[in-house]
Structures are given as C-alpha cells and as structure tokens.
Amino acid sequence: MIHRVISLLLLFFTAFCSAKAQGRVTDEVIYHVFQRSFYDSNGDNNGDFNGLRQKLDYLQQLGVTSIMLTPIWQSAFYHNYFSSNFEKIDPTYGTMADYIALVKEIHRRGMKIYLDMEPQYVTEDHLWWKDSFGNPQSPYSNYILYTDKAQLHPESIVLNYTELKGYNGVVKKLTTVNLNNEAVKRYNYKLFKFWLDPDRDGNFDDAADGFRLDHVMDDLDGKGKLTNLLANFWRPLVDTLRVCSPTVKIIAEPGDWKSYGTEFYGRAGVDEVLAIKLAIALRTFDKDRIVRVADSTFTLVPEGKQPLVFIENHDIPRFATAVNRDIRKEKVGAALNLLIGGTPAIYYGQEIGMLGKSGHYGLTDANEVPDREAFNWYKSNAGKGMAFWYKNSGPWWDHRYNQPNDGISVEEQASDKYSLWSYYHQLISLRKSHSALITGSYRNLENRNVDVFSFLRSSPQQQMLVVVNLSAVKQQVNLVCNPGGKRIRPVFGAAEAKRDHHGALDVTLPGYGIAVYQLK
C-alpha cells in the first residue's frame, strides 16, 4: 500500500513547491542513527519509526537538535542501501503513517530530520533491472548501465562488485544507475521533492528538512562512464530542491575518502560536506596531522557553508574500540567532535562508548554488523526495545561487542556525573551557551608542545580558546592568546592556568586533559 501511495503522489507531483517558512537551527547537533538498531517498538527485534519517536525525549535530554537516518527504502539488505524500490518504505520500519507521525513529532519539538539518499545503485529486484535485462526495447533500457548491447551484462558498482551476500545468506546482484539519463534525473527530482511535502498540502510539518547524499563523486567510482555528475546530476537536483524549499539542507558524503570534497560546495551547491579526512585525523591523536587537516578542512570551506564533523559513523570502527576503551581518550574525541567547528554529528551509541569493529567474513554486508549493533539501553543488555535484529545469525552475533554489565549502557551512565554520557551532555550544553563554539571561525593557535593541540573559535561577539592534551602524561604549554589585554575566564575542564611575566598563559593539563576558556 505504501508504494502505491508514493507512486501516485510521485506521478502527479509537479515542478512547483511552496517554500517552507522555517528557519535553520543555529546550534545544530546531529544524531546519526542506524534506526534498525536503535529501539524496537513492536517486539520484532527491528528498530523502527515508532521506537525512534518514543525515544525523542532521550535525544533531547542529551542535547541533540537533529536526526539523520540511514536509508529507509526497500532493500534486500539490512542497511537499506542498494534499493530494490525507491518508492517503498521498508515495512520493518513501519508504515508511511508511522513515518509521518515521527516527522511531525520531531518538528513539534523544534528538531529536524534528514534522509539518506543513494540513487546510484539498485539490485536485480528493481523494476528498471527486471524490465530491461536482456530486453533492449524496454523503456528502462537507458536507466541502467550495461556493458553490452544485448543488455545481459549490467555495469558493476563501487569496488567493481556485481553482487553482495547479505548477513542472512541472501545474495543479490547489483548494478549502477545511469545518472546522466534525463529520465533518471527527472525521476529523482520528483522522488526527492516528494519527501519535502509528502501530502502536497503546502504544510511542511511532514517534510524532511534535508538530505544526506551518499557516495557523491564527479566521476562515479572513477570508471570514466558517468562523468561530470556534479554539474549534470547533483547541481540541477539541488537547485530544484531549493525552489521547493529554500531552507532545505543538503549534506554530501565524498565517495573518495582521500578528498576534502570542497568542490561539492560550489559545483554541486551543497551546504555541508562530511569531513572524512578530519575524522580520520582526529582518531590518530597526532597533533601535526590534526592541525594540517583541520586547517585545510576549515580554510577551504566557502562563506556560509560548513563541514559536518564526526569521529565515527556506520562505515568505520567505533571510536571507543579505536582507542581501546580509554575513557580519557574517548572524552578527547568528544571534545574535538563538538568544539572544533562545523556542524557536529554523533553516531548513535557514541555517547555511551559503544564498541565495534568490522569483521572479516568474506564478501558480505555482515562485515559491518559489529559497527551497527543494537543500542544498549540496559545494564543487563536485555529489556523492552532492544533491537537485536541480527540475533543468532552468525559469528558476528556469537562474538558481539554488546555485553551485559560492561558499563556501556544508558542505564549505567545517564545518572553518573563522571560517565561518558554525562561528558557529552556537558559539552553539548557548553556549546549551546557560547555562541563562538557554534558559529565562530576556527584557527589553530600555534604552540611549541608537540602533544598539545590548541585552537581559537572566534565570532564577532565572543572568542573561545580550547586546549587539548593528546598524550597520556601531564603537559605544560605556553600560549600567546590575549590580544588587546583580554581577560581569560576558564569555563570547562580542570587545567591549571596562570599568567607568565609576558602576559601569556601557562596551562598545565593532566593526561588527555581538556580546557576551555573564554577571552573577554
């Protein structure tokens, strides 16, 4: 029924949309949720829309302002990438009515929601594949890239995959969509615009506030077969969406992780780009690398745009695993994630230090299950809402990271003022109470200590200094950061600080210590 409703609306959705009268959230903190793993409302072990709606109080208590979903479209795969039908919601997440109820409640609370879109690839179950395979006369022949005239050999996808085995043993063939086909472009214009006003009534309380564009590249997968996509596909799509909603936010993930993706701001017109290189640098605790990458990340961003800053997501190992569950290093990661600049995004479970690292189970999406385990609400690792969709499905379950009584749960941390959860809550509150930490520019503040990273966040109204010890031992650093004789007021952290006889600031930080000061 869902796909019939969406198909009907897509068919009649015109190029005209009314603009949303909704302002941007200036103090945005995004919660990137893998919704299948978050909270199960109906006992089928799958996290769902209603479960997410029931936990909005929790997210607001943490300080989150926006929610970014992973894909919700029908797919043979648990992560819902590689869709079999872009017009049908995966029923394990709920109905269209459930989705709308979630969006309306998010908006009622003054929050925002972003949808994850991946139009580049489809499975063998998609209509375009089924109708055009071996049938050059199909109206969908040019919707799919084929390598032969008989249309018996569909083009591979990223990493030259032609098929993928799901964690549940199901194998599906995969192919690339011809994004340079005009009919495909028009289809995507209608598809994206549908989610900006699903009932077409001009009331945007049911509208997505923006989109995460997955795997954006100018030359898709570097094959030379779909080129100039920024100008030919992505920019026209973004411009079309802005006619529909001038406030829509477009977030791009670079398909090339070695790239800063800064060309997406101008050539594709997006608002934010995932700062992948910065995320990788922050995880090294290497000051020189962090300074170098941070300088490039923030210097290359055009006026009015932002990088989306994160330290973990659904494609990389959990930060807590990367730092061997050293809570001091986890807190450094939290501080850098939330204070360095841009729009911060927190991956679900990051705030309680969830563990996870990709496995090695062959060519299967099961490899990433450990990075996407059930959010742990309870000390016992059992209870209402636990989303163990992968239960008893393979070695990734038998050797799961999620264990009882390990200190990694909301129940164990939310009431503990020294916990990682409380630290995230404190940092988000700190950020909200100091405008420079929200809108201020970033500038590295040079110092001679190879283990201490210091930077300034400056806005016309305020200037903040952040000092971070990237080592396990106590460090002292001398900082010249007081132009015009400004007073320095400590606002966060337990560092020792005093003036030297030149007026500079001497700061002594404990191992992996963090200090934040306001310059007044």
Write a concise keyword list for the protein shown above.
alpha/beta, TIM Barrel, Immunoglobulin-like, 5-stranded antiparallel sheet, 16 helices, disordered N terminus
Characterize this entry briefly:
The N terminus is likely disordered. The protein has 2 domains: 429 residues, TIM Barrel (Alpha-Beta Barrel); 79 residues, Golgi alpha-mannosidase II (Immunoglobulin-like).
Topology:
Elements: H1 2-12, E1 30-33, H2 49-54, H3 56-62, E2 66-69, E3 73-75, E4 83-89, H4 96-108, E5 112-117, E6 121-123, H5 127-132, E7 163-165, E8 171-176, H6 182-194, E9 210-216, H7 229-244, E10 249-254, H8 263-268, E11 272-274, H9 276-282, H10 287-299, E12 306-309, H11 319-322, H12 327-339, E13 343-347, H13 395-398, H14 410-413, H15 420-432, H16 436-439, E14 441-444, E15 452-459, E16 462-469, E17 475-479, E18 488-493, E19 496-499, E20 505-509, E21 514-519
Parallel strand pairs: 1-2, 1-13, 2-5, 5-9, 9-10, 10-11, 11-12, 12-13
Antiparallel strand pairs: 3-4, 6-8, 7-8, 14-15, 15-16, 16-21, 17-20, 18-21, 19-20
Major beta sheet summary: 8 strands, parallel, barrel
Oligomeric organization of the protein chains: single chain
CATH class category label of the largest domain:
Alpha Beta
Q: How much β-strand is present in the residues?
A: 15-25%
Number of helices: 16
Annotated CATH homologous superfamily of the largest domain: Glycosidases
CATH architecture field of the largest domain:
Alpha-Beta Barrel
Through-space gap between termini: 60 Å
CATH-assigned fold name of the largest domain:
TIM Barrel
Q: Give the strand tally.
A: 21
What level of helicity do the residues show? 25-40%
Structural class of the helices, strands and pairings?
A: alpha/beta
Low-confidence runs (pLDDT<50, min 5 residues)? Answer: 1-6, 8-25
The whole-number mean of residue pLDDT values reads 94
The value of Rg in angstroms is 24 Å
Strand order of the largest sheet: 1-2-5-9-10-11-12-13
